[in-house]
Amino acid sequence: MKFSQVVPFEGLQKIILHAGDLLRKFHIDSLTKSYKAGGSFATEADIASEKFLIEQLQALLPGSGIWAEESGKQLNNNSYYWVIDPLDGTNNFVQRIPFSCVSVALVSQEQIIIGVIYDFHRDEIFVASRGNGAYLNGQSIHVSSKKALQDAIISAPIAYRGQVSATERRIFWNELEDVDKQCCSIRILGSAALSLAYVACGRLDIALFDRLSWWDVAAGSLLIEEAGGTVTTFSGKPIDCGFKTLIGGPKVLYDQLFVIVSK
Question: Which fold has domain 149-261?
């Protein structure tokens, strides 16, 4: 498996696997919810995982900054910064739905250069570094080979109600209705990051996101690109920290879906 020379893969993998181990040890019945603006919430599991990841990732790459879901931005003209979602799919985790993950990306000069997503329920680690391909547990992966949108299963996570205006939410629902008429099925699985990893390995065919956060998509968007897919905003621009929308998957399906959402 090829990997970036910025940080050693073995060291990075060890850190992320350990974060997954931390999450597995939490007793769900005893978790308390701390609600945030917009209606989402964090638990002690989110906080513990993030604290560990920040400490270990900054030790792995001294001088690197942080952009994390719970701690926010800790950037100071850093050459590199980590984008961290310590537990993507917290609601699923609390409900005992085994679809959540740890998501970590490394960004340099506004370009994502490393993306790692760890599904600690299934012990599956998805890894990509720019120019080196995408892998699942060390095996090369590729986006779906489907050619027609009518055969495609689309991932379309929805932002928490309080994170978007009623108008923005209604617009996205209307877009999904238009898409639903021309695809096989739409899935809302509760973890945006893991859904992107599933697009990268072909379990899902294409992703359609609106009004999510940088930590939700940074690692997964690189995974899709390195697995042979195309990722942009609904207006065709590259994904960066200021993104509002995302469409990502194999180019042939991307082109068909882009026509619908870019109207």
Answer: D-Maltodextrin-Binding Protein; domain 2 (3.40.190)
